[in-house]
Amino acid sequence: MRKQFLSIFIMLCSVAVFAQELTVKETLINPSNKINDGQVELEVTGGTPPYTYKWSSQETSLKSNTAINLTEGVDYSVLVKDATGKSVEKTFNIDTESITEIFNGTMTPAVAGLGSVLFWDPFAATGIYDPVVYADVKLISIPEWNADTEGKFSLQQWLKPEGSHVNKGDKIAVISKSTGGTVDAFAQANGELKYLVKEGGVIYNSDNKKHVIEQGAQYLAEIKYDEPIPLVHPNGDPQTKNIPFIVVWLLLGATFFTLRMGFINIRGFKHSLDLAKGKYDDPDAPGQVTHFQALATAVSGTVGLGNIAGVAVAVSLGGAGATMWMILAGLLGMSSKFVECTLGVKYRDILPDGRVFGGPMNYLRYGLEKRNLKGVGKFLAVFFAILAVGASFGGGNMFQANQSFEQLAGQFPVLAGHGFWFGVITAILVGTVILGGISSIAKVTEKIVPFMAGIYVLAALIVIGVNIENIGPAFSAIIDGAFSPSALKGGVIGVLIVGFQRAAFSNEAGVGSAAIAHSAAKTNHPPSEGFVALLEPFIDTVVVCTLTALVLIFTGMHEVEGIAGAQLTSDAFGSVISWFPYVLAVAVFLFAFSTMISWSYYGMRAWTFLFGKSRKTEIVYKIFFMIFIVIGASVSLGAVLDFSDMMILAMSFPNIIGLYIMSGEVREDLREYFRKLKAGELFKKQKAAKETA
Asked: DSSP letter at 46?
């Protein structure tokens, strides 16, 4: 008997000894020369199963021993634990095998670095609030419901009394279906049960438009958690709803300029329309383009994929309520545009050959020099110019070529795999326009912008009109979602930030790019161009972005999950106009094309500020620009595009600093302009015609 006990004891000891040996063997896989498709497979031995895998990749599950869609050339880590708590930590780096992978891997840390500045949360960092997203209630939905579910579902019987404590897995209700039969609803958490539907009442009816539009119409009950539960990513990291510093920076600037200029975005709106219509166009005024041409060029630089795909992402993340905050941010951004474009004209430089050089580079350099801040002004101007050049090649060029090709190839499969030739043709088209300078660019944009915007707005109005019976539920969803969103949407702050962020990223108010185009306008009065410019955020955000959001909400597509932004918008239009996704794909190309030609001018003026104003310098830039179009359309550059897109936002740092310092000067110029307007001292076509007669 003793021998048997001894042998068992020895065996247990040996198991315990060997169990301490937790070993992890990895296999690194780079399946192709495409970016972001790296894989790591782990083989774990020893220890005590089951094992958990805490990856640095947030999209990889704690239960998965394999991580996929990893960026080549970037370090990833994993912490493997067994059931007893023993752990082994490993770091991996998948070797790059192509030039695109090298570029992508090199730029990924740079994106993270710039992102840590742009998207840093000052409020969370100072402990003002907790950015972690907590779920305080668990909403119980009709089992296996999705946005495409059809039929009528009624609450046949409650199996648990309201207010009672239920445990996860408890059967709580029986639901009857119009198609016949019943389905059981189960508690999905521990907590206190609250009814959202009375016994015998209808939970969801796909024939009821209010149910289709209303967020959360499919829920029959909610369970209040015993304690709020933090939402986590698949790898276990808590989900957060941050307040990005760049959004705060742009919003504070827009609010300050709105107050400083006496709500110029509202009281100057009618006059801005008169200016855009050409009522005050003086043919003898210095400059190269009309007020309307400058407006069309600047609008073409902002209206693009963000208005189509970006809004869909914003409404998916923030719900219908994000629309209201997006509109508010667009209205405030009008004041930022007024200030920067007024200064753009005031400090422009016109050469004897008629070429105009203006924008933030000039007013930062010479406007601050006038205030004995020469060193600061020069630094901010050069910093802005470097960012603008980088942004023009990336966000204003390669990103547009890349995304427009993907959209067209998605609707016209014959294009798939021919990105290089698409890029070549696009580069030739862009080249024929930009070689003629701002006058040529303006002549194209003044035709393309009204045409493409008109088609898009008309189609949106048709979709809304067909679903006009949803107007009540739609606006209820927007208002309710803006002021009382669920915790899953991040609460009011989360929805507000999503809306503000989309508006700020879309209309570029405060970024300074538009001031470069508006500086070329024919005018003797700088504030007049500020008035014209304040229409841009209104057109871009208050009109186009809002219409996109309304199309999504009126069709109920804002409830659909798992679909990319542009595709979601396309499906929403397609639900009413079956052939419109093809038109939308072409519209995306036109949006991208117009954005490219506008940004070529922005980048060229920043380039000439850095390297000289000769025509040779301009030609060198234009050649580079066309080469980058081909690269953008034919190669997946991932983090390179992300970084250059961030540079557009980063332009707002030097720009808004200068605007703050010179805002008093703009206010005085505005007062003088209003005095001349009231006194009839400004050039006006009707008045000029009478004097000639």
From this structure: S
* Residue (of 388, 319, 336) closest to 358 by Cα position: 388
Task: Please tell me whether the peptide bond between 50 and the residue prior to it is cis, using omega within 30 degrees of 0.
Answer: yes
Question: Could you tell me if 650 and 387 are in contact, meaning their C-beta atoms sit under 8 angstroms apart?
Answer: yes
Please give the C-alpha separations between residue 84 and each of 237, 260, 462, in angstroms, as whole numbers: 21, 63, 62
pTM, entire model: 0.80
Residues 6+ apart with CB under 8 A from 169: 186, 187
Residue 232 phi, psi (nearest 5): -130, 155
Residues 268, 271, 276, 279: what is their CA dihedral angle, to the nearest 10 degrees?
-160
> 273 and 530 in contact (C-beta within 8 Å)?
no
- 3-class secondary structure for 268-322? CHHHHHHHHCCCCCCCCCCCCECHHHHHHHHHHHHCCHHHHHHHHHHHHHHCCCH
Task: Give the amino acid at 333.
Answer: G
With vertex at residue 450, the alpha carbon angle to CA 599 and CA 291, rounded to the nearest 5 degrees, is 65
Sequence-distant (6+) residues with CB within 8 A of 170 are 160, 186, 187
401, 410, 643 from 631: Cα distances, Å:
9, 19, 16
Pair of tokens at residue 391 = 């942004």
CA angle 564, 430, 622 (to 5 degrees): 115
* CB-CB contact of 33 with 100 (8 Å): yes
Closest of 349, 348, 294, 304 to residue 517, by C-alpha: 294
- In angstroms, how far is CA 210 from the centroid of its own chain? 28
Which phi and psi angles does 249 have, rounded to 5°? -60, -50
The answer to whether 203 and 197 have CB atoms below 8 angstroms apart is yes
pLDDT at residue 469 is higher than 50: yes
- Closest of 592, 606, 63 to residue 359, by C-alpha: 606
Q: What's the confidence (pLDDT) of residue 497?
A: 75
634-646: pLDDT as tens digits: 877 677 777 877 8
Residue type, 347: Y
Structural domains of the chain ordered from first start: 23-98 (2.60.40.1080), 134-230 (2.40.50.100), 245-679 (1.20.1740.10)
| Residue 362, pLDDT above cutoff 50 | yes
Q: Amino acid letter at 613? A: K
- Are 57 and 68 in contact, with CB atoms under 8 Å apart? no
Residue 55 CB partners (closer than 8 Å, separation 6+): 64, 67, 76, 77, 78, 235
For residue 193, list its beta bridge partners.
223
pLDDT grade for 184, boundaries at 50, 70 and 90: very high
